[in-house]
Amino acid sequence: MTTLWPTSYYTDEDHLSLEQERIFERSWICAARSSDIAAPGAFVRVNVGRESVLLVRKKDGDIRALINLCRHRGAQLCLEEEGTFKNSIRCPYHGWTFNFDGHLVGAPFLHELPPETKQRHLFTAQVDEWLGYIWVNLDPTAPPLMEQVGPLLRGRFGDEDVPGNYECEKLRVAKEVTYEVAANWKILYENFCECYHCPTMHPEICQILPSWRTGYGTVSGPEGPKQEGSPLADDATGFSLSGKAAAQKLPKVPEKHARTFHGILLWPNVHLMFIPDHVMCMRFEPVSPGRTRVVVQWLFHPDAMDDAEFSPDDAAALVEVTAMEDFEACERVQAAANSAYFEEFHTPHESLILEFREWVHQLLHPESVRHLKEAV
Ligand code: FES
Ligand SMILES: [Fe+2]
What is the distance in A from the centroid of ligand 1 to the CA of 286? Predict the structure, then answer.
């Protein structure tokens, strides 16, 4: 199937602004690991869409997502990426001070200011925790996180709670790598939507997951998603460059999945891999039309990590090698995306790309979706 697509789709600043406004600033975005802010007062500063957001752990254990912008004259409250606030958040400019709920609790000469000044609370975003990650939604009217990810989970795994088997919230980050790739975030995401490139480009992963040599991975198959996952090669004990498991099977992974790889894309910004002994989470953040930050984390059971012999490196190396192959290909597409000749052809292996694009299109142009519904 040939698709003509405007070249602006991958290259245009205005198009990315629209995506930021209608996708990243209205969807649930996986923003940080819950353990990043374990102690009361701990915070991380993250980007959600075009906004800077402070994720703060309150004394009662809850998390607040506060827009990093002072309600006096708009200065950014915090420039550090992470740290710990003592009891409050104080703007360095004129000293307005907010508690962790975002309420104004102090300001120079506050008693001389009109009483309504005290109502100038920080703006907040919706926040939730799932899989041991902190998810943020800037849209106060957005439905709960599960309404966004539930249909994707059911479409991929059916009725089985596959992520639940891995108890991600109990796992620890054994390794983290951040990449900056010279490609539009959708080019990266679309790459992970298909395995048509696997037999050509990924000899290492096809050695461990031989079924990928068919050009169908786990996120798509001849009849749609392959809910049963991909089996490890007969001579492999784990998903790693050497083919050896890095740790014991996670406790709640059922025997039927003891030699199975599962993967899922939770758009817009998450790619998860579930392997018997660990979980990999890849998050995408658009930096500019032609650049994307990718944060990869490998999560293992704390008991496995306490073993003196433990190393995540062999497992991580398989994803690292594969990711470098993917990123290079994505950069080739980006380099061509401004050409007047740019167009695409999609094989049946790549059908998930079209589903993803439909989702993007519906968020970018809700009016056209309404129109389509009326016409039916
Ligand atoms: S801008 Fe923050 S106190 Fe003035
Ligand atoms: Fe790939």
Answer: 29
Residue 73 Cβ inside 6 Å of ligand 1? The answer reads yes
Give the chain's mean pLDDT.
Answer: 94
Residues in the chain: 376
Mark which of 115, 137, 159 sits at the end of a domain.
137
Full residue range of the structural domain in which residue 301 is found: 145-364
Residue 116 belongs to a domain? yes
- Is the beta carbon of 291 within 6 A of some atom in ligand 1? no
Query: Do 46 and 67 touch, CB atoms closer than 8 A?
Result: no
Amino acid, single-letter form, for residue 246:
A
Whether residues 127 and 161 fall in one domain: no
Cβ of 94 less than 6 Å from ligand 1 = yes
Question: From the centroid of its chain, how far is CA 173?
Answer: 15
pLDDT at 374: 46
Residue 44 has pLDDT above 70, yes or no: yes
pLDDT digits (tens, 9 = 90+) for 128-141: 999 999 999 999 99
- The yes-or-no verdict on residue 296 having pLDDT over 60 is yes
> Is a pLDDT exceeding 90 seen at residue 368?
no
Give, using CA atoms, the residue closest to atom 4 of ligand 1. 94
